[in-house]
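Re: your question from the hallway

Yes, I did run it. Sequences:
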Amino acid sequence: MGAYHLRRLLIAVPSLLGISVVLFTVLALAPGDPFEELATNPNVPPEVRLALRAQLGLDDPVWQRYWHWLTSMLQGDWGFSFVSRIDVDTLILQRLPVTLAVIGASQVLALLVALPVGILAAVRPYSWFDRIASTIAFVGFSLPTFFTGLLLILLFSIHLGWLPFVFKADIEATGWAWWWEHIKQSIMPVTVLGLFQGATWMRYVRSAVLDVIRLDYVTTARSKGLAEKVVVTKHVVRNALIPVVTLVALQMPSVFGGAIVTEQIFRIPGIGSLLIDAILRNDTPVIMAVTFVFSILVIFFNLVADVLYGWLDPRISYR
Amino acid sequence: MQEQDIRGLIEDVRTGHLPRRSFIQQMVGVGLTAPMASMLLMHAGVANAQTALPYKPTRRGGGGTLKLLWWQGPVHLNPHWATGTKEQEGSRMFYEPLAGWDPDGNLYPVLAAEIPSRENGGLSADGRSVTWKLKRGVTWHDGQPFTADDVVFNWEFIKDPATSSSLIATYRDIQVVKVDSHTVRVTFPKPSPFWAEPFVGTSGMMIPKHLFAPYIGAKSREAPMNMAPVGTGPYKFLDFKPGDMLRGTAYANYHIPNRPHFDAIEMKGGGDAVSAARAVLQTGEYDYAWNLQVEDEILKRLENGGKGKVTITSGANIEFIQLNPTDPWNEVEGERASIKSRHPAFSDPAVRQAMSLLVDRKAVEDFIYGRTGVATANFLNNPPRFRSPNMKFEFNIDKANKVLDDAGWKRGAGGIREKGGTRLKFVYQTSVNQPRQKTQAIVKDACAKAGIDLELKSVTAAVFFGGDFANPDTYQKFWCDMQMFTTTMTQPDPQVFMEQYCSWVIAQKDNKWAKRNILRWVNADYDAAHRAAQAELDPVKRAALFIRMNDLVCSSNHIIPVVFRPRPSAAGTKLVAPLSGWDNDLWALPHWYKEA
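Structure:
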């Protein structure tokens, strides 16, 4: 297994380089520049804008800019935003806690909902519970998050007035009050995202369990006289969850990417909204840094998923 | 309105027969701006009116936290490189100019002890210099005193081309000298009727010399104060997360007594305009939201909750349609929409007149924009009560049909008019924006009844307004027959605004379409009038010239003004927040308070 890991890690390096080249080229070819607002402002003479572009090296040839970026990145300097002049790593770190908290919590909620509901639905297939759960799941992943988000806002914030709908990253309060404020403002976005994700996963869990539950060894276990609960938890679930674990591991990078639509609706200052704002403003260093970290995470979690899969299922071996 | 008429009105104000306010509104009615009208009076020696801003609290503090919702959050806090109003507003929380513009266009002193005038010796007789007396006892947030050195430093900072300040055009040609510790003199290269541009309003916020001195020129972008400002304003900086949250606390040594009323201030950014309106008008989570580009119907519904009200502030933004005088479909010397070409249909004044008759401005106002868009016939602003006597608008499909028939445009295949092989089929573009798409639909419908076929095109705003010279869909390229957008007047004086129709700034391939006359309209009379206005010392003659320019461009029908766009914002019912269309929303921030 050691050789396999090493090989995968070694292949990851050129993959990342390739990704960064493609990203950088696409951004360089894309229309727009970070100072376009200056272009439409009648009071700003064109020389000012051109001077700024030259200052930031925007007029250099693409390969030169890429090389500059790559060497700085390897030295740990992620550059600074063209628009605000703040270091990119400061910007990302500012938004990381909120992203991890809100999006992370929604993934946990999704798991907590999908697992029991999916398993129960599969253990009693085509029963009332299964039919209702499946329908709700279909509705859940068909409705877009901006729709469910707006519905929840209209119901809980505006009609009932129970929950605030504008997210505040810093709350001046301490102890229980701080936790309570955070919970109140996070419930809606976490629910919106969590249920959306949970709906998809519930269907996966259900079909994975259904696949396993009709296999012979389950019948054997039942005929040996084991309690149904033990059969399900010790034998069925363990085997059924292997593909689900892989799925969850592959989903982990999206926690970093955030959920752009939900962040917009609830004004959550997450990394997703940072990325979108940077794209709309043509702020290349920020876009490069965020997407590059995202690609590292994707490659890393792919590896993790493969390793986990091999560990959980002894039938799989890697050469 | 001729020069003589204006002079007569000024005399009436001076002798007390005409209220100052009426004069200003009449001037606005013929296309001037309120600040310009106010300067006309000042030049004639009519004393500046001092606006009294209502303020009830009797002590500083005790108001809690003021929560502002700016759905486009500021990303930096240096007013001298602000490209958009969001950074100006963020900076205005901490920095102040020498004076601001009130809603009637009068100057309101902030860091100045008084407004310069002929009587107090502030304005020189030859119109070439202004002497500002600074208020005493003003301190920066770190305790250092505010003096004339700071004012001179701001000028040096902005005029340095290495700083790349967006305000450079205002400060480049003037001279600023320190007379004594609290007096500065600004000298203009030629007599300037509009002297109140440097150091006033959005282009005049003061940054501290003692902190910024090492960061002048190319190093200005590295100054830590760009993210942590130290100013003279009512609130001290606390925390800033770009694009997300800006916070401040009340400054205990603020130079106006009993202000500010609030103990802390927050400006949250992000999201969209509709939910910002909801947060103020329906849930009351926020006290004030800015620039609500939302349909009036929605705003009215939100207001029904009774938690807040929508304020419409008049400025000078105008939504209008341009008819291309050049041919965008055929290349001349490798360039589309070249000024060497002529548009086959729009070069006929009858077609342009017909198009103007086919835009139902009233319907656009009533059904789309409501209070946020007022039907107008003028390119320079136009409030409803005082219509300019010169320009009128009309919506008349029958008349349009008649005009076209008389000019020889006969209906051909499919009911589309044609003449000499040219069909009246046009591409009409604008940005992606729901009210604009609805306006396009209304215009298309009316044109269809007159035998004109319009193909509607919408381009995403970031591209349309983007200025990227490689993209064919920008409004600067104007590679289609007609386009519609809102142009904003960023300064109270119309000279820069009206320059966009002069022939020396035509956007073309060789200047990468970076110049301002994207309409590509050429008119010798207009050019002559603008040149004369630049050199004209007498502000009354100058005002008459601007009125003439407005009439020239509107009567050519190459531009069809649709609606004049005041700025809607929402405030909680208890919040008292005086707003001005000629300055930032936060121009009177120290005077904001909440009624008990």
